[in-house]
């Protein structure tokens, strides 16, 4: 043996893998071994980079080798590492059975090895790889024969002939055979088809362990794209999976069956087989399992069914799916929350009773809490907002959401800079649904300003339509919101929007309604009426009115009626003519004639969602203000058809005895204007229903009785009954009168709205409009032109 002396008289034996005899290696620099040098021996050197294995008696000890330009740490391993290499066991080193080896990283020495050593070592490593493969193959599948080209080794003869899989039990042999087929056959579809019958039998086995292993195999197959399509077409396999899931309490089995079913539900045929196999009840039961993965797979499957299979929705509801899903909105898993929210959306969509059920389950509270909780998973917000948009059509849910500050929460998400158009639309739709019950909120100034800004900068007609709809609802009967719109230039902006989207009814109708609201009953109403004229909006408003579309006609007539309260506006709009030569008076008379005839035939008739009653109200109200112009009054008096229709309408029992006095008030107001002239008074006396006028003197609505008195006074008929009734009313109600409003209040802005000044003073027996009082007027309908 040749030796190399390192350090102080320390011998280190060196073996080359390519030889069976030691050889002395001359190192280019001094090699220092830290620790007890006598405990170590260099055992293996791997070609030029020299992988060094050191033997030590101290297993687990870490040593260091230091040399010129290198330093490595060596971790001590056990003796078993030698057993992996047959050629290493052939070495006859005296201490091999007692010592342990340490394998280092590659150490770069400047010494050289011959190329023959390198080639021989590489060959031995290839031999080792083949031997290892043969050993594993023989252990797992002894009957699986393959000619490896190598002779059996002595140590391999000791391997038992019975495979490990076979020892698991006789039923598991079928599973092993299926695995062998998967290894031997190339066609994945053919493999899966042949394996499925065996898997079905194993899934129905009485042994839970067998069922568990079979479920695991189906789960693995379902993860492969080339196998899943075949699995999804086999209804028996799906039924076996569902039965296995229903019949086990083992968490692993439940999880893997749920996972396989979830993967199968990604395919159309798989979804149909799940539904037809009665899978929905079991999926709903899975939602109550404490294992989150099981719940997640169940929710995913139900979501796929809801998304693609319409008939599944009713069955999921019948099985208590909504009740089982709602608690998972509180999950800490945001992806699960998103799936649950989207599933709930499909269940509550167009189903009023499920929306009420969802409300009773405190679902809206969970949704708002989610929106108030920061998260980077923006898809969760999108799905929750979509659910809110759906449930916000339910009156009871609307009220609950408003109480939960839903409008403010949605506003917070609306102004985010990173929001996309689709989610922006969903938010706006939800806010529009809620806004009609938010008229009593007085803290929405910022929201209104942001909506106006959005309308101004956006050219997306859907966004403008939704934002305008919200403004229309918020400005109805809310003085503060009207004031905010007018004070921030909203009237001028909305007038421009009419010209920007003249043919988009979803935009023009809410814009007209908002302008109608802002031109009445608040301190800036007169300024708003002037702004309409100064913005040059009358031509486009008249053009829209000429379309005869019921929603547009209702809104446009109301707006023009409010603007006509100013004489400058009245003269301007009377001079406007459309391209077809139509004017506002002619259109209003036509609407009254057509809708009035329909109303006489059927008092409940509708047109495009607008009742004929509302159409008649709008046209009569507009003509009431337009008739302050002498030429308009003469035109109406000289139209026997119109006068006869007005007489019939005021005589209708459904109108003169209606709890809502708006129609009767406007009819009596029109008769009052027409009877102001001597000729008009004679025509009204000859054609008008005098009995109705006399009965109206005792109307419980003071505006109606006041107009009746004015009409009778104009035609010089004694109205003593009216005076007696008014004196009695004043005496009997004086104790219940509301205190007069404070000076400077907004009452001054709407007190004369539609009620002529001379009749206003007559009605309240006062020269000051600040003394206005309202007795027994719970609806405020007589002065409320917003409705």
TrEMBL record:
GO MF entries: cadherin binding
The alphabetical list of record keywords is: Developmental protein
Q: Which InterPro entries match?
A: ARM-like (IPR011989), ARM-type_fold (IPR016024), Armadillo (IPR000225), Beta-catenin (IPR013284)
Signal peptide as annotated in the record: none
A Gene Ontology biological process in which this protein takes part is: cell adhesion
Its domain of life? Eukaryota
Gene3D superfamilies, sorted = Leucine-rich Repeat Variant
Repeat (ARM) positions are 278-305, 446-489, 536-578
* The UniProt record lists the keyword Iron: no
Q: Which PANTHER family match?
A: ARMADILLO SEGMENT POLARITY PROTEIN
Q: What is this protein called?
A: Armadillo segment polarity protein (inferred by orthology to a D. melanogaster protein)
């Amino acid at each position: 043996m040749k030796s190399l002396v390192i350090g102080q008289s320390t011998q280190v034996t060196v073996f080359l893998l390519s030889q069976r005899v030691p050889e002395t290696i001359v190192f280019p620099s001094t090699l220092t071994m830290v620790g007890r040098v006598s405990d170590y021996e260099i055992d293996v050197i791997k070609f030029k980079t020299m992988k060094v294995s050191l033997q030590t008696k101290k297993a687990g000890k870490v040593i260091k080798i230091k040399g010129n330009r290198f330093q490595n740490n060596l971790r001590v391993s056990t003796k078993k590492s030698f057993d992996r290499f047959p050629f290493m066991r052939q070495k006859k080193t005296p201490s091999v059975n007692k010592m342990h080896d340490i394998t280092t990283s590659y150490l770069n020495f400047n010494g050289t090895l011959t190329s023959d050593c390198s080639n021989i070592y590489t060959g031995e490593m290839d031999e080792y790889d083949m031997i290892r493969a043969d050993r594993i193959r023989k252990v797992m599948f002894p009957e699986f024969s393959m000619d490896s080209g190598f002779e059996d080794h002595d140590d391999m003869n000791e391997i038992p002939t019975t495979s490990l899989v076979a020892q698991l039990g006789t039923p598991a042999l079928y599973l092993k055979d299926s695995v062998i087929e998967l290894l031997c056959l190339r066609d994945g579809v053919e493999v899966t088809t042949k394996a499925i019958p065996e898997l079905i039998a194993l899934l129905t086995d009485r042994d839970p362990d067998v069922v568990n292993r079979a479920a695991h195999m189906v789960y693995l197959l379902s993860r492969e794209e080339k196998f899943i399509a075949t699995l999804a077409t086999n209804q028996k396999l799906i039924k076996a999976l569902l039965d296995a899931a229903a019949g086990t309490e083992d968490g692993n089995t439940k999880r893997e069956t749920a996972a396989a079913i979830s993967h199968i539900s990604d395919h159309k045929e798989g979804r149909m087989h799940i539904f037809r196999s009665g899978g929905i009840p079991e999926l709903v039961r899975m939602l109550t399992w404490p294992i989150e993965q099981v719940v997640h797979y169940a929710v995913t499957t139900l979501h796929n069914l809801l998304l693609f299979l319409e008939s599944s929705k009713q069955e999921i509801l019948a099985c208590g799916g909504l009740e089982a899903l709602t608690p998972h909105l509180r999950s800490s898993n945001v992806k699960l929350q998103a799936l649950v929210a989207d599933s709930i959306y499909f269940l509550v969509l167009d189903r009023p009773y499920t929306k009420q059920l969802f409300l009773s389950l405190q679902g809206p509270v969970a949704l708002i809490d989610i929106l108030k909780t920061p998260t980077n998973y923006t898809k969760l917000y999108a799905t929750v907002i979509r659910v809110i948009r759906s449930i916000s059509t339910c009156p009871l849910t609307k009220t609950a959401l408003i109480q939960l500050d839903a409008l403010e929460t949605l506003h917070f998400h609306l102004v985010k800079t990173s929001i996309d158009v689709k989610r922006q639309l969903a938010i706006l739709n939800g806010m529009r649904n809620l806004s009609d019950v938010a008229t009593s909120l007085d803290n929405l100034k910022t929201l209104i300003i942001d909506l106006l800004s959005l309308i101004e900068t956006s050219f997306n007609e859907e966004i403008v339509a939704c934002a305008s709809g919200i403004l229309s609802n918020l400005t109805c009967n809310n003085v503060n919101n009207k004031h905010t719109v007018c004070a921030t230039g909203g009237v001028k902006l909305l007038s421009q929007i009419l010209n920007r989207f003249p043919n988009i009814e979803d935009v023009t109708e809410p814009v007209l309604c908002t302008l109608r609201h802002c031109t009445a009953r608040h301190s800036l109403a007169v300024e708003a009426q002037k702004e309409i004229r100064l913005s040059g909006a009358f031509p486009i408003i008249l053009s829209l009115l000429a379309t005869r579309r019921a929603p547009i006609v209702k809104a446009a007539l109301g707006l023009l009626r409010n603007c006509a309260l100013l004489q400058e506006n009245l003269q301007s709009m009377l001079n406007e003519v459309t391209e077809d030569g139509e004017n506002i008076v002619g259109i209003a008379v036509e609407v009254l004639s057509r809708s009035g005839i329909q109303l006489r035939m059927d008092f409940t008739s509708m047109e495009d969602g607008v009742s004929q009653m509302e159409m008649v109200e709008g046209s009569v109200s507009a003509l009431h203000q337009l008739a302050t112009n002498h030429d308009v009054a003469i035109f109406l008096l000289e139209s026997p058809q119109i006068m006869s229709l007005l007489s019939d309408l005021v005589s209708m029992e459904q109108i003169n005895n209606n709890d809502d006095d708006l129609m009767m008030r406007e009819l009596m107001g029109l008769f009052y204007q027409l009877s102001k002239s001597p000729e008009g008074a004679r025509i009204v006396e000859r054609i008008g229903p005098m009995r109705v006028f006399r009965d109206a003197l005792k109307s419980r609505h003071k505006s109606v009785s006041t107009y009746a008195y004015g009409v009778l006074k104009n035609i010089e008929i004694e109205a003593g009954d009216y005076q007696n009734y008014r004196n009695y009313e004043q005496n009997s109600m004086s104790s219940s009168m509301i205190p007069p409003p404070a000076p400077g209040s907004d009452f001054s802005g709407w007190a004369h709205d539609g009620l002529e000044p001379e009749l206003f003073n007559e009605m309240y027996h006062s020269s000051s409009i600040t003394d206005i009082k309202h007795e027994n007027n719970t609806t405020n309908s007589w002065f409320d032109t917003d409705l």
